[in-house]
């Protein structure tokens, strides 16, 4: 366990500023110190708030919710998976709304059918959507598309979860603007990484992300150079399902792209 | 049996479940999500899994009894079952679901029926084992001890 904590902290250090590094380290340590668990949760919430305020002070309009916590909308038709993802997100100090279908997710956002949401929806503002891919009725992919087509909600990062580690599926989702793709079963390290990355983006990019088309393409070089090899980003490197050599090393990919690169790649298509 | 013996028995039992492939690493993940503020998390998730599984196995039995077999529907159920089994770390059940799906794809009724029986069997075994494990945990807690991680 101790080596796990160190490992996690080492990776995170490369992405985060030092206060958050300590928090992540402590998060692992306090599993074995139950009494300090509650205090730690407060500390983490405090850290999250600190990060937000830091971003705000830079003058960027953060797209985070008005409340202190990150509000995640989790979408999964499986009640087992909903329970697990809810717990994973709560441990990561997020506020969670879990729904069982794409339709309900759209209803929650105020985006059902042809109606666009009014701006008076701030109280229930969603900072991140994490959705299963395979769902009856509306798939996660269709939900992703609806969100990205909405002028009000397209800035909300959407993460797709799927039990199937299929390159074409992953690419399809990423091309449609998904922030990331997690192969199920979802682990705590996956969720932590997603939230961490999101917080980093909020701190660094801030308001600059507004209005930018979030289409993304794979860029393995950039991924490798900025951090350790993808397979070590999750705490257990053997988390991938048996897969053919042609699938990616890491079940999750996070991509960044400048508008110049977007221009280049879209022409290449 | 005294507390220490109970705790040892639990650890041994749990280890054997992993060793024999009934449970995989994902179950460990779930245990790590449990803490003193959420002491029943694993039991709650597994209970939901039992609920789901029983429903799905029922649906599968019914679907395979039909005159005209709807393989797509069966595959959808098996996919769900595979998913939830994977989410709690019920490795043997999950692996059988993969085989089951192959038979669905091949529209092989005999294969599907055989798989259904096997899946039902494996599921009932892992259910019994998990329930035994939870019972051991309860005994330890009732004896005033803590459940070893």
From TrEMBL, chain A:
The keyword Isomerase does not apply. Pfam families: Response_reg. InterPro entries: ARR-like (IPR045279), CheY-like_superfamily (IPR011006), Sig_transdc_resp-reg_receiver (IPR001789). Residues 259-269 have a biased composition (Basic and acidic residues). It comes from the Eukaryota. Residues 205-269 are annotated as: Disordered. Residues 71-199 form the Response regulatory domain. PROSITE patterns: RESPONSE_REGULATORY. PANTHER family: TWO-COMPONENT RESPONSE REGULATOR (PTHR43874), TWO-COMPONENT RESPONSE REGULATOR ARR3-RELATED (PTHR43874:SF50). This is Response regulatory domain-containing protein. It comes from Hibiscus sabdariffa.
TrEMBL record, chain B:
It comes from the Eukaryota. The keyword Flavoprotein does not apply. The modification Phosphohistidine is found at residue 79. Its main location: cytoplasm. Residues 38-133 form the HPt domain. The lineage of its organism: Eukaryota, Viridiplantae, Streptophyta, Embryophyta, Tracheophyta. Gene3D superfamilies: HPT domain. Keywords: Cytokinin signaling pathway, Phosphoprotein, Two-component regulatory system. PANTHER family: PHOSPHORELAY INTERMEDIATE PROTEIN YPD1. It is found in: Cytoplasm, Cytosol; Nucleus. CDD domains: HPT (cd00088). The keyword Phosphoprotein applies. Signal peptide: none annotated. Functions as a two-component phosphorelay mediators between cytokinin sensor histidine kinases and response regulators (B-type ARRs). Plays an important role in propagating cytokinin signal transduction. This is Histidine-containing phosphotransfer protein. InterPro entries: AHP1-5/YPD1, HPT_dom_sf, Sig_transdc_His_kin_Hpt_dom. Pfam families: Hpt. Histidine-containing phosphotransfer domain (HPt) contains an active histidine that mediates the phosphotransfer.
